[in-house]
């Protein structure tokens, strides 16, 4: 038997959720490098991501191929630690992709995937100490590319 809905609880949930949804609806200027407010999943920049550059980043600087099979056949040695990213744009929306790139530990603290938009990472090469692996615009470019993988 179904229990009756508590409209008071629904009202409280909406009141708590609405500010986050409104905030997520508008793009912001690029935040300080290494800072990502996970309470909002809005784009990190006002400029739309470039999927062509995102593909280059995924195959190179972003290191995506180290752990994922991707539809980038000209590159050899795709990893198999993470899931195959073919079709990921059909499974996840851009805000979800952004969160998984910027700070995947929010979703799964035990994931081996590094945070690409946080400064406090371990095991980075000396030239990246105190920096993020990807800039805000680079995160947006990779998100734009992954969103094309339908």
Automatic annotation (TrEMBL):
Signal peptide: 1-24
Domain called Cytochrome c: residue spans: 49-150
NCBIfam families found in the cross-reference section: thiosulf_SoxX (TIGR04485)
Keyword Heme appears in the UniProt entry: yes
Cross-referenced PROSITE patterns: CYTC
The keyword Nucleus is assigned to this record: no
Name used for this protein in its record: Cytochrome c domain
Biological source species: Magnetospirillum gryphiswaldense (strain DSM 6361 / JCM 21280 / NBRC 15271 / MSR-1)
Molecular-function annotations in GO: electron transfer activity; heme binding; metal ion binding
Keywords: Heme, Iron, Metal-binding, Signal
InterPro entries from the UniProt entry: Cyt_c-like_dom, Cyt_c-like_dom_sf, Thiosulf_SoxX
Pfam families linked to this entry: Cytochrom_C (PF00034)
């Amino acid at each position: 038997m179904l229990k009756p809905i508590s409209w008071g609880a629904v009202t409280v949930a909406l009141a708590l959720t609405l500010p986050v949804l409104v905030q997520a609806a508008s793009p912001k200027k690029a935040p300080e490098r290494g800072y990502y407010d996970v309470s909002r999943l809005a784009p990190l920049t006002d400029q739309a991501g470039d999927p062509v550059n995102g593909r280059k980043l995924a195959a190179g600087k972003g290191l995506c191929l180290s752990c994922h099979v991707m539809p980038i056949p000209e590159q050899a040695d795709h990893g198999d630690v993470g899931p195959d990213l073919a079709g990921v744009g059909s499974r996840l929306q851009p805000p979800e992709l952004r969160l998984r790139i910027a700070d995947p530990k929010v979703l799964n603290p035990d994931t081996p995937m590094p945070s690409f938009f946080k400064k406090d990472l371990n095991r980075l090469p000396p030239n990246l100490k105190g920096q993020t692996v990807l800039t805000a615009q680079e995160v947006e470019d990779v998100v734009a590319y992954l969103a094309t993988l339908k």
